[in-house]
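Ligand: 6-O-phosphono-beta-D-fructofuranose. Inputs:
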Amino acid sequence: MTKHIGILTAGGDSPGLNAAIRGVGRSAQDHYNMQVIGFLDGFRGLVDNRSIRLEGGMLAGILTRGGTILGTGRDKPHRMMFGGKKQDMTDVIVENYNNHHLDALVCIGGGGTQKNALLLMEKGINVITLPKTIDNDVGMTDTTFGFDTALGIATEAIDRLHSTAHSHHRIIVVEIMGHRAGWLALGSGIAGGADVILLPEIPYDLDAVALAIRDRVRSGKKFSIVAVAEGALPEDRAVRVKAAEEARDKAKDDKARKKAKNELIRLQAEHINHTSTLSRQLEELTGLESRVTILGYLQRGGTPSAADRLLATRLGTACTDLIAQEHYGVMVAARGENAEPVPLIKVAGNKKLVPPDHSWVISARNVGTSFGD
Ligand code: F6P
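Predicted complex:
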């Protein structure tokens, strides 16, 4: 019996998505004679029933393209804005899945997508996922596609910032994506030789950062590069965030939960312009001029690296092998040279953060990088 499979891409776009769509689509059709359709704009396309047939021609020439030919979105199936209010659309998704006579649904996404896929699995859909995100923060997989490309882009940016910081004897504070996980700031900071790296996982002391920069000046280096992850926090705010998160998770009633959530919203508001504030504070504390560069969406755009194309193709074809074996409810994880199925129940909500004693952190410290702690 010919199998019918659906594919969607969800969450932030990430280089390698098209390589993964091609990997799944080509191997499904050419190797297993399956029929493949793509749903547009993430889970919303599955609700609205917007799909395209992913036949041969559609999959040609996309290996090297950034973004996703299917479009993406951050909608959650169980809390989707629909008709002006947030609604649980999972039953509609199940209905459309059945109407298309699908045997499996491939969801390509990051941490949020793994959770959403688990919900759909619990509703009876044969789900299988692939891990993508430039943040590299999906648990139970060695890495995610998109990370290597973003790492290259951020590293090149830091390289370029070096020469201008050096020429002007300035501090340059470069903001790198990653709200909760600092892998990208850490990796690019090390590869680009940043003098200070600030991560969400290692709260920083402003005075320690300023001291590291002044020490460099004393040793004759009048410029510094500070690589700061979006979610890096000064120690005092990190303590307040942790307390509010704990209060939210332990809240016994709606009132306590709301209070904790409001505190988290206040803390998020305080974090806006964090990088500019940090730059200004460092000017005051060091007497050097400081400038800010926010890399933003440049890190996600454009053609995927060779490593990401290879990883996405490997995981995509392994995904089709698993569908052929009717092995569902799993994420196709990268494990060394292999691709291995990991139950979604173990992946959903399992965020991979940088352990403060991770070997990359130790290496960086050993070459004199400050983490501001
Ligand atoms: O999840 C990937 C990511 O690029 C994060 O690094 C970043 O914080 C976030 O997405 C930005 O989200 P959005 O695309 O919704 O602005």
